[in-house]
Amino acid sequence: MPSCVLAYSGGLDTSVILGWLQDEGYDVHCVYVDVGQPCEDREAIMQKAHDCGAKSARLVDVQEELCRDFAFPVLQWQARYEGIYLLGTSIARPLISKVCLQVAREVGAEAYAHGATGKGNDQCRFQLAAEALDPAVKIIAPWRIPAFREKFPGRTEMIDYCEQKGIPVKASIAKPYSSDENCLHISYEAGKLEELTVDGYEVVDFGMTVSPQEAPDQPEQITVGFESGVPVSVDGEKLSAFEIVQVLNERAGRNGVGRIDIIENRFVGMKSRGVYEAPGMTVLYETHRLLEQLTVDRDLAHLRDRIAPEVAEMVYYGLWYTAKFDALLAFIEEAQKPVTGEVTVNLYKGNILASSRSSPLSLYDEEIASMEGGGSYDQTDAEGFLRIVGLPSRVQGRINPRDY
Q1: Model confidence over 309-343: pLDDT tens digits?
Q2: 32 labelled ligand-binding
Q3: Would residue 51 show up in a list of annotated catalytic residues for this protein?
Q4: Measuring CA to CA, which of 38, 269, 289, 383 is 20 to 30 A from 296?
Q5: Which InterPro entries match (predicted)?
Q6: What is the residue range of 283's domain?
Q7: How far apart are alpha carbons 118 and 17 in whole angstroms?
Q8: Residue 403 falls within a domain, yes or no?
Q9: Is residue 93 annotated as a catalytic residue, yes or no?
Q10: Is residue 346 annotated as involved in ligand binding?
Q11: DSSP 48-68
């Protein structure tokens, strides 16, 4: 029999797909890639896959790798899709594909199946990553197959199929929205959120953050340490990448930090609405930026900021395993070498307020920057500087006088 690896969650969609793939004649190897989904009984999910006829089932915990090797390089770029979205879902997808392809190679499976729809971004991220890693792999995306959609036009038919097959699922026919969670963030979309007159902050039952109105009335201070642009400590305690994200999720979350509501442009061309919460990563983005203000040369910082939107697009589109992205990762690793130090901020009712920052590699010189008299900056030097800078304008002004 042909065999495939299925990116498996144990939920309704992938449970149906597992049964359908078997109906289609496949031996199915289920892979639950643990990127920090909600607290679930992992052993029960694995047992469920076995009970439903999977050839094999395994859980692979990649939370540390997700934070260290995927989220933190994107953080170094200060990459935000369309200026606001911190890319929590986008970052995880190429890693999920990588793990599934590693298992496929190990078990000798020639196909890789996933449950992403034909309307969304995840199909792009899964497939582009998989084909870059194994150009010969066969991608099975059931929601893009007409026969599958005809068999399962809605959740009612999917639930009925599971009942007929004896597949245990916890699912309701109507949902107010769908959500996707990992250790970096939670995304909410579809359902009632497709109505733009609906207040997303009122509809969503947030899982990582309290509302700013319900946050404590006193600010909470926190210090984040960086080495070469990589977060390494919280309040002076050295922690792993995943531990840092965990601690900041808890502390920022209880202070209402990290919620957004965005109308974004999907890779496939349509606009869609997403509500997101990413408390820990929001703190890391802000503290990282504050430290860069001390340590990164102006022209280098401005160059990075011009390229960052393109980096965000590549991550959002799923173009992680490309020569261009490899080069961009090498660039940012070099550019971030001086970004070492500590930043202290106050978390208060959804806000992050700078308190202090320090670095052994700081480019800030108080003697030069001081507005007081004296100091090491000779203001007379500005005269010649401005004569040189203004030369083109003076020449143009003589040749083509402006009305004023």
Answers
A1: 999 999 999 999 999 999 999 999 999 999 999 99
A2: no
A3: no
A4: 383
A5: Arginosuc_syn_C, Arginosuc_syn_N, Arginosuc_synth, Arginosuc_synth_CS, Arginosuc_synth_type_1_subfam, AS_cat/multimer_dom_body, Rossmann-like_a/b/a_fold
A6: 178-296+338-358
A7: 15
A8: no
A9: yes
A10: no
A11: HHHHTT-SEEEEEE-HHHIII
